[in-house]
């Protein structure tokens, strides 16, 4: 088994996709093996750096699906890393290693909670016991797999000194990626950036990749993830469509396109082939049965749709008036939707497209009045409706 070694990890931000693990843990989002392979295939097409394919110890079916993903999309030189999640115990790690045996570039991702509330009520462990567990589990994972990621669950609510101690043990035992999760979506961007900056200053200089994993409980997962990149994180953990536990995870498409669109500000972008983002979004929606909201950034049906007349007029003169991204870059197209807010310019353009006629003057004025009357009673006017309006007007003017 090999370790994927990019030329220079400092030049770009790695994308760690956890749709098949954290995303699938969203209530009602379990996927069949065939669906998981379809999504994994889309993720490879996107060129994600790491696919977290599942949580092997959850079930024998989970092991089988991870094995299948390794065979289908993760067993050649151009494959992404295939990752499995394991709690910090020997049994989980052994099952994880077995599930990843067919991956060209396997990664074991092991974790334990570090916040006081988790130690007291969930783990019922002392800090010393946690440190010993981290040492034992990371050492064992490293003996089975060269690429080991360690996560300090609920890091954003952890005592900073203890968090440093835990991370130091993990690095000393062989972890090469340190994940600093905002597990419950609690912190603000400035707070998370400060935490990532401190961890990066302490461990990033040792060749360790610092990773951001944010949840959206307060609606700040994407903002927190981007703040982490600005502060030194060089891996972002995301899901397609922002799928995930409770309110979800940071949305991959939003993080990627923010870095791409504002590269000059952030200084880094990813290696994602962005033209496949809409296709990946649709594949995940089919696999989980969760529809994408029409106003979802980047991949929603309305992301590049314009109805207001002022907007449509600006778009027809210069796209950049209202589109900061070119839609084809994400696999989408611009749509000028005709409705009651639309203006004459957009109406004339649509008529020209469907009929080849250049309407103007009184003829356009009269048709526009009829169009507005129809639009007041019908949300969207389609091409068939327009053709009927044109025919009706032609008859009444004979």
Structure description:
It is a single chain. With about 400 residues, the protein is α/β, with parallel strands linked by helices. The protein has 16 helices and 10 strands. Helix 3 (about 60-75) packs parallel to helix 4, helix 6 packs parallel to helix 7 and helix 7 (about 160-170) packs across helix 8. The termini are far apart.
Helix content: 40-55%
Number of strands: 10
Gyration radius, rounded: 25 Å
Counting helices, strands and paired strands, the structural category is alpha/beta
Oligomer: single chain
Helix count from the secondary structure assignment: 16
Mean pLDDT level: 93
The spatial strand order of the largest sheet comes to 1-2-3-4-5-6-7-8
| Amount of beta strand | 5-15%
Largest sheet: 8 strands, parallel, barrel
How do the SSEs run, as a string of H and E? Answer: EHHEHEHEHHEHEHEHEHHHEHEHHH
Question: Which overall shape is indicated by the principal axes computed on the Cα atoms?
Answer: elongated
Terminal-residue CA separation: 79 Å
Task: Pick out the low-confidence regions.
Answer: 4-9
